[in-house]
Design brief:
By secondary structure, this protein is α/β, with parallel strands linked by helices. It folds into 3 domains: 3-220, 4-Layer Sandwich (Glutamine Phosphoribosylpyrophosphate, subunit 1, domain 1); 233-394 and 471-532, 3-Layer(aba) Sandwich (Rossmann fold); 544-607, no CATH class. It has 25 helices and 19 strands. The strands form 4 sheets. Strands 2-3-1-9-8-11 form a 6-stranded antiparallel beta sheet. Strands 4-5-6-7-12-13 form a 6-stranded antiparallel beta sheet, with helices on one face. A 5-stranded parallel beta sheet has the order 16-15-14-17-18, sandwiched between helices. A hairpin with a 2-residue loop joins strand 8 (150-154) and strand 9. Helix 2 packs across helix 3 (102-113), helix 6 (233-251) crosses helix 7 (266-280) and helix 23 runs antiparallel to helix 24 (571-578). The longest helix has 30 residues, at 452-481.
Protein backbone atom coordinates (compact mmCIF):
# COMPACT_ATOMS: atom_id res chain seq x y z
CA UNK A 1 0.00 0.00 0.00
CA UNK A 2 2.65 2.47 1.09
CA UNK A 3 3.19 6.18 1.64
CA UNK A 4 4.76 8.51 -0.90
CA UNK A 5 6.28 11.96 -0.76
CA UNK A 6 8.48 14.25 -2.79
CA UNK A 7 9.92 17.65 -3.57
CA UNK A 8 10.35 19.24 -6.98
CA UNK A 9 12.45 22.43 -7.18
CA UNK A 10 13.21 23.81 -10.64
CA UNK A 11 15.57 26.51 -9.34
CA UNK A 12 17.92 24.30 -7.36
CA UNK A 13 19.79 21.01 -7.44
CA UNK A 14 18.45 18.75 -4.67
CA UNK A 15 21.23 16.19 -4.27
CA UNK A 16 22.28 17.71 -0.95
CA UNK A 17 18.73 18.05 0.40
CA UNK A 18 18.55 14.63 2.05
CA UNK A 19 17.57 15.95 5.49
CA UNK A 20 14.31 17.51 4.31
CA UNK A 21 13.41 14.50 2.18
CA UNK A 22 14.15 12.06 4.99
CA UNK A 23 11.95 14.05 7.38
CA UNK A 24 9.07 13.97 4.91
CA UNK A 25 9.54 10.26 4.21
CA UNK A 26 9.65 9.23 7.86
CA UNK A 27 6.23 10.76 8.55
CA UNK A 28 4.92 7.95 6.32
CA UNK A 29 6.52 5.16 8.40
CA UNK A 30 3.14 3.88 9.65
CA UNK A 31 1.87 3.60 6.09
CA UNK A 32 4.95 1.61 5.10
CA UNK A 33 6.53 -0.31 7.99
CA UNK A 34 8.33 -2.86 5.79
CA UNK A 35 10.86 -0.75 3.86
CA UNK A 36 11.97 2.76 2.99
CA UNK A 37 13.67 4.32 0.03
CA UNK A 38 14.63 7.72 -1.37
CA UNK A 39 15.76 8.87 -4.79
CA UNK A 40 17.26 12.25 -5.69
CA UNK A 41 18.34 13.42 -9.11
CA UNK A 42 18.60 16.98 -10.30
CA UNK A 43 15.45 18.91 -9.49
CA UNK A 44 13.54 15.92 -8.09
CA UNK A 45 13.58 14.19 -4.71
CA UNK A 46 11.24 11.24 -4.07
CA UNK A 47 10.56 9.34 -0.85
CA UNK A 48 8.74 6.07 -0.20
CA UNK A 49 7.66 3.91 2.74
CA UNK A 50 6.52 0.43 1.78
CA UNK A 51 3.85 -1.94 3.02
CA UNK A 52 4.74 -5.09 1.07
CA UNK A 53 1.67 -6.83 -0.39
CA UNK A 54 2.62 -8.24 -3.81
CA UNK A 55 6.07 -9.52 -4.85
CA UNK A 56 7.57 -8.88 -1.45
CA UNK A 57 11.24 -8.89 -2.57
CA UNK A 58 10.73 -7.28 -5.99
CA UNK A 59 8.56 -4.24 -5.37
CA UNK A 60 11.04 -1.86 -3.72
CA UNK A 61 10.68 1.85 -4.42
CA UNK A 62 11.36 4.47 -5.64
CA UNK A 63 11.55 2.59 -8.93
CA UNK A 64 13.24 4.09 -11.98
CA UNK A 65 14.14 3.40 -15.60
CA UNK A 66 17.00 5.08 -17.45
CA UNK A 67 16.14 6.06 -21.01
CA UNK A 68 18.37 7.66 -23.67
CA UNK A 69 16.73 11.01 -22.94
CA UNK A 70 16.59 10.94 -19.14
CA UNK A 71 15.47 8.94 -16.10
CA UNK A 72 11.82 8.24 -15.31
CA UNK A 73 11.22 7.52 -11.61
CA UNK A 74 8.07 6.47 -9.76
CA UNK A 75 6.71 6.44 -6.21
CA UNK A 76 3.46 4.54 -5.98
CA UNK A 77 0.86 3.83 -3.30
CA UNK A 78 -2.04 1.43 -3.76
CA UNK A 79 -2.99 -1.60 -5.80
CA UNK A 80 -3.63 -2.11 -9.51
CA UNK A 81 -6.00 -5.06 -9.76
CA UNK A 82 -5.61 -5.56 -13.51
CA UNK A 83 -1.81 -5.49 -13.46
CA UNK A 84 -1.56 -9.06 -14.78
CA UNK A 85 -3.37 -8.15 -18.00
CA UNK A 86 -1.39 -4.93 -18.35
CA UNK A 87 1.86 -6.81 -17.76
CA UNK A 88 1.00 -9.22 -20.55
CA UNK A 89 0.21 -6.35 -22.91
CA UNK A 90 3.42 -4.50 -22.06
CA UNK A 91 5.64 -7.54 -22.54
CA UNK A 92 3.91 -8.08 -25.88
CA UNK A 93 4.99 -4.55 -26.79
CA UNK A 94 8.61 -5.30 -25.99
CA UNK A 95 8.96 -4.17 -22.38
CA UNK A 96 11.28 -6.25 -20.19
CA UNK A 97 9.83 -6.50 -16.70
CA UNK A 98 12.00 -8.12 -14.06
CA UNK A 99 9.60 -8.33 -11.08
CA UNK A 100 6.06 -9.53 -10.42
CA UNK A 101 4.99 -6.26 -8.78
CA UNK A 102 2.20 -3.99 -9.97
CA UNK A 103 4.52 -1.00 -9.35
CA UNK A 104 6.79 -2.00 -12.22
CA UNK A 105 3.76 -2.48 -14.45
CA UNK A 106 2.58 1.08 -13.70
CA UNK A 107 6.04 2.50 -14.37
CA UNK A 108 6.37 0.74 -17.72
CA UNK A 109 2.76 1.62 -18.47
CA UNK A 110 3.73 5.27 -18.12
CA UNK A 111 6.70 4.74 -20.43
CA UNK A 112 4.35 3.21 -23.00
CA UNK A 113 1.26 5.41 -22.71
CA UNK A 114 2.31 8.49 -20.76
CA UNK A 115 -0.41 10.13 -18.68
CA UNK A 116 -3.00 7.99 -20.44
CA UNK A 117 -1.90 5.10 -18.22
CA UNK A 118 -4.47 6.43 -15.75
CA UNK A 119 -7.36 5.40 -17.98
CA UNK A 120 -6.07 1.83 -18.19
CA UNK A 121 -5.78 1.17 -14.46
CA UNK A 122 -8.33 -0.64 -12.33
CA UNK A 123 -7.55 -0.13 -8.70
CA UNK A 124 -6.88 2.26 -5.84
CA UNK A 125 -3.76 4.33 -6.26
CA UNK A 126 -1.93 7.58 -5.81
CA UNK A 127 1.39 7.87 -7.59
CA UNK A 128 3.90 10.41 -8.80
CA UNK A 129 6.21 10.08 -11.80
CA UNK A 130 9.25 12.30 -12.28
CA UNK A 131 9.81 12.34 -16.03
CA UNK A 132 13.42 13.44 -16.42
CA UNK A 133 13.04 13.43 -20.19
CA UNK A 134 10.78 16.47 -19.92
CA UNK A 135 11.57 17.83 -16.44
CA UNK A 136 7.95 17.21 -15.47
CA UNK A 137 6.15 15.75 -12.46
CA UNK A 138 2.98 13.76 -13.11
CA UNK A 139 0.64 13.01 -10.16
CA UNK A 140 -2.31 10.65 -10.67
CA UNK A 141 -5.06 9.61 -8.24
CA UNK A 142 -7.63 6.83 -8.55
CA UNK A 143 -11.13 7.56 -9.80
CA UNK A 144 -13.01 7.39 -6.50
CA UNK A 145 -10.37 8.94 -4.26
CA UNK A 146 -9.67 5.78 -2.27
CA UNK A 147 -6.02 6.69 -1.74
CA UNK A 148 -5.21 10.17 -0.39
CA UNK A 149 -2.87 12.53 -2.26
CA UNK A 150 -1.90 16.15 -1.44
CA UNK A 151 0.40 18.79 -2.91
CA UNK A 152 1.72 22.20 -1.89
CA UNK A 153 2.91 24.63 -4.57
CA UNK A 154 6.19 26.44 -3.77
CA UNK A 155 7.77 29.45 -5.52
CA UNK A 156 9.82 27.15 -7.78
CA UNK A 157 8.01 23.82 -7.75
CA UNK A 158 5.89 21.66 -5.47
CA UNK A 159 5.87 19.42 -2.40
CA UNK A 160 3.62 16.36 -2.34
CA UNK A 161 2.68 13.47 -0.10
CA UNK A 162 0.14 10.79 0.73
CA UNK A 163 -0.85 12.81 3.79
CA UNK A 164 -0.53 16.46 4.86
CA UNK A 165 1.90 15.50 7.61
CA UNK A 166 4.51 14.61 4.98
CA UNK A 167 4.26 18.06 3.42
CA UNK A 168 4.13 19.88 6.77
CA UNK A 169 7.44 18.23 7.70
CA UNK A 170 9.19 20.34 5.05
CA UNK A 171 10.48 23.78 6.09
CA UNK A 172 8.87 25.42 3.05
CA UNK A 173 5.38 24.44 4.26
CA UNK A 174 3.49 26.42 6.89
CA UNK A 175 1.01 24.77 9.24
CA UNK A 176 -1.69 27.39 8.77
CA UNK A 177 -5.48 27.04 8.66
CA UNK A 178 -7.50 29.96 7.32
CA UNK A 179 -11.24 30.64 7.52
CA UNK A 180 -12.09 28.40 4.56
CA UNK A 181 -10.12 25.58 6.15
CA UNK A 182 -12.18 25.90 9.34
CA UNK A 183 -15.35 25.98 7.27
CA UNK A 184 -14.32 22.74 5.61
CA UNK A 185 -13.41 21.26 8.97
CA UNK A 186 -16.71 22.10 10.66
CA UNK A 187 -19.07 20.97 7.89
CA UNK A 188 -19.76 17.33 7.01
CA UNK A 189 -19.05 18.00 3.34
CA UNK A 190 -15.96 17.22 1.28
CA UNK A 191 -15.14 19.95 -1.22
CA UNK A 192 -13.11 18.42 -4.06
CA UNK A 193 -9.51 19.63 -4.02
CA UNK A 194 -9.77 21.22 -0.55
CA UNK A 195 -7.11 20.16 1.95
CA UNK A 196 -8.06 22.35 4.98
CA UNK A 197 -4.40 23.40 5.38
CA UNK A 198 -3.77 26.80 3.83
CA UNK A 199 -1.71 26.67 0.64
CA UNK A 200 -2.21 22.93 0.29
CA UNK A 201 -4.45 21.20 -2.24
CA UNK A 202 -5.73 17.70 -2.82
CA UNK A 203 -5.17 15.85 -6.07
CA UNK A 204 -8.83 15.34 -6.92
CA UNK A 205 -10.11 11.83 -7.59
CA UNK A 206 -9.89 10.82 -11.25
CA UNK A 207 -7.41 13.60 -11.94
CA UNK A 208 -3.94 14.02 -13.43
CA UNK A 209 -1.91 16.95 -12.07
CA UNK A 210 1.27 17.90 -13.91
CA UNK A 211 3.99 20.28 -12.73
CA UNK A 212 6.69 21.75 -14.94
CA UNK A 213 8.50 25.06 -15.29
CA UNK A 214 5.38 26.59 -16.84
CA UNK A 215 3.32 25.87 -13.73
CA UNK A 216 0.64 23.42 -12.57
CA UNK A 217 -1.98 21.88 -14.84
CA UNK A 218 -4.95 19.70 -13.90
CA UNK A 219 -7.18 17.52 -16.04
CA UNK A 220 -9.84 14.98 -15.17
CA UNK A 221 -9.47 11.58 -16.81
CA UNK A 222 -12.67 10.19 -15.24
CA UNK A 223 -15.91 11.45 -13.77
CA UNK A 224 -19.44 10.20 -13.30
CA UNK A 225 -21.27 10.51 -16.61
CA UNK A 226 -25.00 10.37 -17.28
CA UNK A 227 -25.94 7.62 -19.73
CA UNK A 228 -29.18 5.78 -20.54
CA UNK A 229 -29.67 2.45 -18.79
CA UNK A 230 -31.28 -0.05 -21.15
CA UNK A 231 -30.97 -3.34 -19.23
CA UNK A 232 -34.09 -4.81 -17.66
CA UNK A 233 -34.27 -5.78 -13.99
CA UNK A 234 -33.07 -9.36 -14.34
CA UNK A 235 -30.19 -8.37 -16.59
CA UNK A 236 -29.20 -5.56 -14.24
CA UNK A 237 -29.20 -7.87 -11.22
CA UNK A 238 -27.14 -10.45 -13.13
CA UNK A 239 -24.67 -7.79 -14.27
CA UNK A 240 -24.22 -6.51 -10.72
CA UNK A 241 -23.49 -10.03 -9.50
CA UNK A 242 -21.06 -10.71 -12.35
CA UNK A 243 -19.19 -7.50 -11.63
CA UNK A 244 -19.02 -8.24 -7.90
CA UNK A 245 -17.70 -11.75 -8.49
CA UNK A 246 -14.94 -10.39 -10.72
CA UNK A 247 -14.11 -7.48 -8.42
CA UNK A 248 -13.79 -9.62 -5.29
CA UNK A 249 -11.75 -12.21 -7.18
CA UNK A 250 -9.26 -9.53 -8.21
CA UNK A 251 -9.13 -7.91 -4.80
CA UNK A 252 -8.35 -11.17 -3.02
CA UNK A 253 -4.96 -11.34 -4.78
CA UNK A 254 -2.16 -10.80 -2.26
CA UNK A 255 1.02 -12.47 -1.05
CA UNK A 256 0.12 -11.78 2.59
CA UNK A 257 -2.75 -12.85 4.91
CA UNK A 258 -6.20 -11.47 3.96
CA UNK A 259 -9.50 -11.03 5.78
CA UNK A 260 -12.85 -9.24 5.56
CA UNK A 261 -14.50 -6.60 7.71
CA UNK A 262 -17.93 -7.94 8.67
CA UNK A 263 -20.61 -5.73 10.21
CA UNK A 264 -23.63 -7.95 9.64
CA UNK A 265 -25.07 -5.44 7.19
CA UNK A 266 -25.96 -6.26 3.60
CA UNK A 267 -22.77 -4.76 2.12
CA UNK A 268 -20.09 -6.48 4.18
CA UNK A 269 -22.09 -9.69 4.36
CA UNK A 270 -22.44 -9.94 0.58
CA UNK A 271 -18.76 -9.14 0.07
CA UNK A 272 -17.69 -11.65 2.73
CA UNK A 273 -19.90 -14.37 1.28
CA UNK A 274 -18.53 -13.86 -2.24
CA UNK A 275 -14.98 -13.95 -0.88
CA UNK A 276 -15.75 -17.10 1.12
CA UNK A 277 -17.12 -18.85 -1.95
CA UNK A 278 -14.12 -17.80 -4.04
CA UNK A 279 -11.54 -18.94 -1.49
CA UNK A 280 -13.56 -22.05 -0.72
CA UNK A 281 -12.99 -23.16 -4.31
CA UNK A 282 -9.27 -23.04 -3.51
CA UNK A 283 -9.64 -24.93 -0.24
CA UNK A 284 -9.23 -21.82 1.94
CA UNK A 285 -11.41 -20.13 4.53
CA UNK A 286 -12.06 -16.41 4.87
CA UNK A 287 -11.09 -14.80 8.13
CA UNK A 288 -13.63 -12.20 9.21
CA UNK A 289 -13.53 -9.56 11.93
CA UNK A 290 -16.19 -7.36 13.53
CA UNK A 291 -16.13 -4.60 16.12
CA UNK A 292 -18.33 -4.86 19.21
CA UNK A 293 -18.59 -3.16 22.59
CA UNK A 294 -18.75 -4.66 26.05
CA UNK A 295 -22.38 -5.41 26.91
CA UNK A 296 -23.79 -3.83 23.73
CA UNK A 297 -25.46 -6.92 22.29
CA UNK A 298 -27.26 -7.64 25.58
CA UNK A 299 -28.29 -4.07 26.45
CA UNK A 300 -28.76 -2.45 23.04
CA UNK A 301 -31.27 0.43 22.81
CA UNK A 302 -32.59 1.32 19.36
CA UNK A 303 -32.60 4.92 18.17
CA UNK A 304 -33.50 6.70 14.93
CA UNK A 305 -30.12 5.82 13.36
CA UNK A 306 -29.54 2.27 14.58
CA UNK A 307 -32.43 -0.10 15.01
CA UNK A 308 -30.50 -3.30 15.73
CA UNK A 309 -27.13 -4.36 17.16
CA UNK A 310 -24.65 -5.83 14.69
CA UNK A 311 -23.41 -8.90 16.53
CA UNK A 312 -26.30 -11.36 15.97
CA UNK A 313 -26.25 -10.67 12.22
CA UNK A 314 -22.45 -10.91 12.10
CA UNK A 315 -22.60 -14.36 13.65
CA UNK A 316 -25.34 -15.48 11.24
CA UNK A 317 -23.13 -14.57 8.28
CA UNK A 318 -20.06 -16.18 9.81
CA UNK A 319 -21.98 -19.44 10.26
CA UNK A 320 -23.54 -19.33 6.78
CA UNK A 321 -20.30 -18.46 4.97
CA UNK A 322 -18.17 -20.69 7.22
CA UNK A 323 -15.67 -17.95 7.99
CA UNK A 324 -13.05 -18.05 10.72
CA UNK A 325 -14.58 -15.21 12.67
CA UNK A 326 -13.41 -13.04 15.55
CA UNK A 327 -15.21 -10.23 17.37
CA UNK A 328 -12.99 -7.37 18.52
CA UNK A 329 -14.75 -6.30 21.74
CA UNK A 330 -13.86 -2.85 23.09
CA UNK A 331 -14.58 -1.30 26.48
CA UNK A 332 -15.40 2.31 27.33
CA UNK A 333 -12.07 2.99 29.01
CA UNK A 334 -10.12 2.01 25.88
CA UNK A 335 -12.41 3.99 23.59
CA UNK A 336 -11.99 7.14 25.70
CA UNK A 337 -8.23 6.73 26.19
CA UNK A 338 -6.52 10.08 25.36
CA UNK A 339 -3.60 8.15 23.85
CA UNK A 340 -5.97 6.50 21.38
CA UNK A 341 -7.51 9.90 20.63
CA UNK A 342 -4.01 11.25 19.91
CA UNK A 343 -3.28 8.41 17.51
CA UNK A 344 -6.53 9.05 15.66
CA UNK A 345 -5.90 12.79 15.36
CA UNK A 346 -2.36 12.14 14.11
CA UNK A 347 -3.68 9.62 11.62
CA UNK A 348 -6.26 12.08 10.28
CA UNK A 349 -4.07 15.22 10.56
CA UNK A 350 -7.32 16.89 11.61
CA UNK A 351 -9.77 16.89 14.55
CA UNK A 352 -12.55 14.89 12.92
CA UNK A 353 -14.78 14.97 15.99
CA UNK A 354 -16.33 11.53 15.38
CA UNK A 355 -15.22 10.30 18.77
CA UNK A 356 -15.77 6.63 19.54
CA UNK A 357 -16.56 5.83 15.91
CA UNK A 358 -13.05 6.92 14.94
CA UNK A 359 -11.46 5.34 17.99
CA UNK A 360 -13.19 1.99 17.51
CA UNK A 361 -12.24 1.88 13.83
CA UNK A 362 -8.60 2.52 14.68
CA UNK A 363 -8.66 -0.10 17.45
CA UNK A 364 -10.38 -2.62 15.19
CA UNK A 365 -7.73 -2.16 12.53
CA UNK A 366 -4.94 -2.37 15.09
CA UNK A 367 -6.25 -5.69 16.37
CA UNK A 368 -6.68 -7.07 12.85
CA UNK A 369 -3.13 -6.05 11.88
CA UNK A 370 -1.75 -8.60 14.33
CA UNK A 371 -3.23 -11.33 12.13
CA UNK A 372 -3.73 -9.92 8.61
CA UNK A 373 -2.16 -7.37 6.30
CA UNK A 374 -5.05 -6.95 3.82
CA UNK A 375 -8.75 -6.52 4.62
CA UNK A 376 -11.73 -6.18 2.29
CA UNK A 377 -14.41 -3.68 3.34
CA UNK A 378 -18.02 -3.05 2.38
CA UNK A 379 -17.39 0.72 2.38
CA UNK A 380 -19.25 2.79 -0.27
CA UNK A 381 -22.01 0.30 -1.11
CA UNK A 382 -24.54 2.64 0.51
CA UNK A 383 -23.45 5.46 -1.79
CA UNK A 384 -23.43 3.24 -4.87
CA UNK A 385 -26.71 1.40 -4.32
CA UNK A 386 -28.70 3.96 -2.29
CA UNK A 387 -28.59 2.56 1.21
CA UNK A 388 -28.76 5.48 3.60
CA UNK A 389 -31.96 6.56 5.31
CA UNK A 390 -31.77 10.00 3.67
CA UNK A 391 -32.36 8.40 0.26
CA UNK A 392 -35.89 7.61 1.51
CA UNK A 393 -36.46 10.63 3.77
CA UNK A 394 -38.93 13.06 2.17
CA UNK A 395 -37.51 16.08 3.98
CA UNK A 396 -33.95 15.18 2.96
CA UNK A 397 -35.03 14.54 -0.63
CA UNK A 398 -36.72 17.92 -0.88
CA UNK A 399 -34.08 20.00 0.90
CA UNK A 400 -31.87 22.29 -1.18
CA UNK A 401 -28.78 21.05 0.64
CA UNK A 402 -26.71 17.92 1.13
CA UNK A 403 -29.25 15.27 2.19
CA UNK A 404 -27.15 13.73 4.94
CA UNK A 405 -26.99 17.07 6.75
CA UNK A 406 -30.76 16.94 7.21
CA UNK A 407 -30.51 13.55 8.88
CA UNK A 408 -27.49 14.46 11.01
CA UNK A 409 -29.02 17.75 12.12
CA UNK A 410 -32.12 15.94 13.24
CA UNK A 411 -30.14 13.31 15.14
CA UNK A 412 -27.42 15.38 16.82
CA UNK A 413 -29.24 18.66 17.32
CA UNK A 414 -27.83 21.65 19.21
CA UNK A 415 -25.99 19.55 21.77
CA UNK A 416 -23.33 18.85 19.16
CA UNK A 417 -22.55 22.55 18.63
CA UNK A 418 -19.80 23.87 20.91
CA UNK A 419 -18.13 26.54 18.76
CA UNK A 420 -18.08 30.15 19.92
CA UNK A 421 -21.04 32.16 18.56
CA UNK A 422 -18.70 34.88 17.28
CA UNK A 423 -16.69 32.30 15.36
CA UNK A 424 -19.86 30.85 13.88
CA UNK A 425 -20.92 34.31 12.74
CA UNK A 426 -17.54 34.85 11.09
CA UNK A 427 -17.47 31.48 9.36
CA UNK A 428 -21.11 31.53 8.18
CA UNK A 429 -21.17 27.75 7.82
CA UNK A 430 -24.69 27.79 6.40
CA UNK A 431 -23.55 30.05 3.59
CA UNK A 432 -20.50 27.87 2.94
CA UNK A 433 -22.66 24.76 2.74
CA UNK A 434 -25.16 26.50 0.44
CA UNK A 435 -22.39 27.63 -1.92
CA UNK A 436 -20.89 24.15 -1.94
CA UNK A 437 -24.25 22.57 -2.66
CA UNK A 438 -24.95 24.86 -5.60
CA UNK A 439 -21.55 24.05 -7.07
CA UNK A 440 -22.02 20.33 -6.50
CA UNK A 441 -25.36 20.04 -8.30
CA UNK A 442 -24.55 22.46 -11.11
CA UNK A 443 -22.67 19.96 -13.22
CA UNK A 444 -24.98 16.96 -12.86
CA UNK A 445 -26.30 16.14 -16.32
CA UNK A 446 -29.98 15.25 -16.70
CA UNK A 447 -30.94 12.41 -18.98
CA UNK A 448 -33.31 13.30 -21.83
CA UNK A 449 -36.84 12.53 -20.70
CA UNK A 450 -35.83 11.94 -17.08
CA UNK A 451 -38.64 12.79 -14.66
CA UNK A 452 -38.21 15.44 -11.97
CA UNK A 453 -38.19 12.75 -9.28
CA UNK A 454 -35.67 10.52 -11.08
CA UNK A 455 -33.42 13.50 -11.71
CA UNK A 456 -33.59 14.49 -8.05
CA UNK A 457 -32.58 10.97 -7.03
CA UNK A 458 -29.76 11.10 -9.58
CA UNK A 459 -28.57 14.29 -7.88
CA UNK A 460 -28.71 12.66 -4.46
CA UNK A 461 -26.76 9.65 -5.70
CA UNK A 462 -24.19 11.91 -7.36
CA UNK A 463 -23.74 14.00 -4.20
CA UNK A 464 -23.08 10.90 -2.13
CA UNK A 465 -20.57 9.53 -4.65
CA UNK A 466 -18.64 12.77 -5.08
CA UNK A 467 -18.92 14.43 -1.67
CA UNK A 468 -19.98 12.12 1.15
CA UNK A 469 -18.14 8.90 0.30
CA UNK A 470 -14.82 10.72 0.13
CA UNK A 471 -15.11 11.63 3.81
CA UNK A 472 -15.56 7.97 4.71
CA UNK A 473 -12.86 6.73 2.36
CA UNK A 474 -10.34 9.13 3.86
CA UNK A 475 -11.35 8.07 7.37
CA UNK A 476 -10.94 4.41 6.45
CA UNK A 477 -7.58 4.94 4.77
CA UNK A 478 -6.04 7.02 7.55
CA UNK A 479 -7.18 4.72 10.37
CA UNK A 480 -6.03 1.57 8.60
CA UNK A 481 -2.71 2.89 7.30
CA UNK A 482 -1.87 4.27 10.74
CA UNK A 483 -1.37 0.64 11.75
CA UNK A 484 -0.03 -0.63 8.41
CA UNK A 485 -3.22 -2.40 7.31
CA UNK A 486 -4.32 -2.27 3.67
CA UNK A 487 -8.10 -2.01 3.34
CA UNK A 488 -9.56 -2.67 -0.09
CA UNK A 489 -13.02 -1.46 -1.13
CA UNK A 490 -14.65 -3.66 -3.79
CA UNK A 491 -17.74 -1.48 -4.09
CA UNK A 492 -15.56 1.41 -5.30
CA UNK A 493 -14.59 -0.40 -8.50
CA UNK A 494 -15.31 2.21 -11.16
CA UNK A 495 -17.02 -0.30 -13.45
CA UNK A 496 -19.62 -1.04 -10.77
CA UNK A 497 -19.99 2.63 -9.84
CA UNK A 498 -20.51 3.65 -13.48
CA UNK A 499 -23.06 0.93 -14.10
CA UNK A 500 -25.17 1.34 -10.97
CA UNK A 501 -25.09 5.15 -11.00
CA UNK A 502 -27.01 5.12 -14.26
CA UNK A 503 -29.68 2.65 -13.15
CA UNK A 504 -32.92 4.58 -12.48
CA UNK A 505 -33.97 5.01 -8.87
CA UNK A 506 -37.06 2.93 -9.61
CA UNK A 507 -34.69 0.05 -10.34
CA UNK A 508 -32.34 0.74 -7.41
CA UNK A 509 -35.37 0.50 -5.07
CA UNK A 510 -37.67 -1.78 -7.06
CA UNK A 511 -38.95 -3.56 -3.92
CA UNK A 512 -39.41 -0.32 -1.96
CA UNK A 513 -36.29 -0.96 0.13
CA UNK A 514 -32.72 0.27 0.18
CA UNK A 515 -30.10 -1.41 -2.03
CA UNK A 516 -32.59 -3.62 -3.86
CA UNK A 517 -30.12 -4.49 -6.62
CA UNK A 518 -27.38 -5.59 -4.25
CA UNK A 519 -29.80 -7.59 -2.10
CA UNK A 520 -31.16 -9.56 -5.04
CA UNK A 521 -27.77 -9.96 -6.72
CA UNK A 522 -26.44 -11.75 -3.63
CA UNK A 523 -29.63 -13.26 -2.20
CA UNK A 524 -28.36 -16.82 -2.70
CA UNK A 525 -25.42 -16.14 -0.38
CA UNK A 526 -27.14 -14.35 2.50
CA UNK A 527 -28.83 -15.65 5.65
CA UNK A 528 -32.47 -14.57 5.78
CA UNK A 529 -31.81 -12.34 8.79
CA UNK A 530 -29.36 -10.20 6.79
CA UNK A 531 -31.51 -10.24 3.68
CA UNK A 532 -34.35 -8.71 5.73
CA UNK A 533 -32.24 -6.38 7.88
CA UNK A 534 -32.78 -2.61 7.65
CA UNK A 535 -29.68 -0.47 7.13
CA UNK A 536 -27.77 0.28 10.33
CA UNK A 537 -24.79 2.69 10.29
CA UNK A 538 -21.34 2.02 11.69
CA UNK A 539 -21.84 1.15 15.39
CA UNK A 540 -21.29 3.44 18.35
CA UNK A 541 -20.96 2.48 22.00
CA UNK A 542 -23.93 3.00 24.29
CA UNK A 543 -21.94 2.48 27.49
CA UNK A 544 -22.60 5.47 29.81
CA UNK A 545 -19.07 5.07 31.22
CA UNK A 546 -17.75 6.37 27.91
CA UNK A 547 -19.70 9.62 28.28
CA UNK A 548 -18.55 9.99 31.90
CA UNK A 549 -14.93 9.64 30.77
CA UNK A 550 -15.49 12.36 28.16
CA UNK A 551 -16.98 14.66 30.75
CA UNK A 552 -14.01 14.13 33.07
CA UNK A 553 -11.59 14.94 30.25
CA UNK A 554 -13.63 18.03 29.32
CA UNK A 555 -13.52 19.22 32.94
CA UNK A 556 -9.75 18.87 32.87
CA UNK A 557 -9.63 20.87 29.65
CA UNK A 558 -11.80 23.59 31.19
CA UNK A 559 -9.28 23.93 34.01
CA UNK A 560 -6.62 24.91 31.44
CA UNK A 561 -7.92 28.45 31.20
CA UNK A 562 -5.42 29.72 28.63
CA UNK A 563 -5.68 26.81 26.21
CA UNK A 564 -6.02 28.07 22.60
CA UNK A 565 -8.98 25.77 22.02
CA UNK A 566 -11.14 28.42 23.71
CA UNK A 567 -10.48 30.72 20.79
CA UNK A 568 -12.72 28.29 18.92
CA UNK A 569 -14.85 26.57 21.55
CA UNK A 570 -17.55 28.22 23.68
CA UNK A 571 -16.29 27.70 27.23
CA UNK A 572 -19.70 28.18 28.87
CA UNK A 573 -21.44 25.68 26.59
CA UNK A 574 -18.68 23.12 27.07
CA UNK A 575 -18.96 23.65 30.85
CA UNK A 576 -22.70 22.97 30.77
CA UNK A 577 -22.30 19.74 28.80
CA UNK A 578 -19.34 18.58 30.88
CA UNK A 579 -21.29 19.02 34.11
CA UNK A 580 -24.65 17.76 32.89
CA UNK A 581 -25.98 14.78 34.82
CA UNK A 582 -28.43 13.49 32.19
CA UNK A 583 -28.67 12.82 28.44
CA UNK A 584 -24.91 12.86 27.80
CA UNK A 585 -24.84 9.13 27.06
CA UNK A 586 -26.56 9.78 23.73
CA UNK A 587 -24.52 10.58 20.64
CA UNK A 588 -26.16 13.99 20.48
CA UNK A 589 -24.94 14.78 23.97
CA UNK A 590 -21.46 13.39 23.40
CA UNK A 591 -20.72 14.96 20.03
CA UNK A 592 -19.80 18.38 21.39
CA UNK A 593 -17.47 16.86 24.00
CA UNK A 594 -15.72 14.77 21.36
CA UNK A 595 -15.32 17.77 19.07
CA UNK A 596 -13.82 19.94 21.80
CA UNK A 597 -11.39 17.27 22.96
CA UNK A 598 -10.27 16.52 19.40
CA UNK A 599 -9.75 20.21 18.67
CA UNK A 600 -7.70 20.73 21.82
CA UNK A 601 -5.49 17.75 21.07
CA UNK A 602 -5.01 18.82 17.45
CA UNK A 603 -3.91 22.28 18.57
CA UNK A 604 -1.44 20.69 20.99
CA UNK A 605 0.00 18.30 18.41
CA UNK A 606 0.13 20.46 15.28
CA UNK A 607 0.19 24.01 16.70
CA UNK A 608 -1.44 25.41 13.57
CA UNK A 609 -1.59 29.12 12.91
CA UNK A 610 -5.29 30.01 12.75
CA UNK A 611 -6.14 33.04 10.60
CA UNK A 612 -9.66 34.35 10.03
CA UNK A 613 -8.87 37.30 7.72
Amino acid sequence: MCGITGWISFDRELSAQTTALDAMTETMACRGPDDRGTWIQGHAALGHRRLAIIDLPGGRQPMSVDTPHGTVALVYSGETYNFTELRRELTGRGHRLTTQSDTEVVLHGYLEWGEDIAERLNGMYAFAVWDGRRDKLVMIRDRMGIKPFYYYPTPDGVLFGSEPKAILAHPLATARVAADGLRELFTMVKTPGHAVWDGMAEVEPGTVVTVDRAGIDRRAYWQLETRPHTDDRDTTIATVRSLLDDIVRRQLVADVPRCTLLSGGLDSSAMTAIAARRLGEQGEKVRSFAVDFVGQADHFVADDLRGTPDTPFVHDVARTAHTEHQDIVLDAQTLADPDVRAKVVRARDLPAGLGDMDASLYLLFRAIRDQSTVALSGESADEVFGGYQQFFDEEARAAATFPWLVRFGRHFGEDAEILRPGLLDTLDLDGYIADGYRTAVAGIVRLDGESDFEYRMRQICHLHLTRFVRILLDRKDRASMAVGLEVRVPFCDHRLVDYVYNTPWALKSFDGREKSLLREATADLLPRSVYDRVKSPYPSTQDPKYAVALQDQAKDLLSRTTHPVFDLVDRDRLHRVAHRETAVSSQAGRRGLERALDLALWLDLYRPEITLD
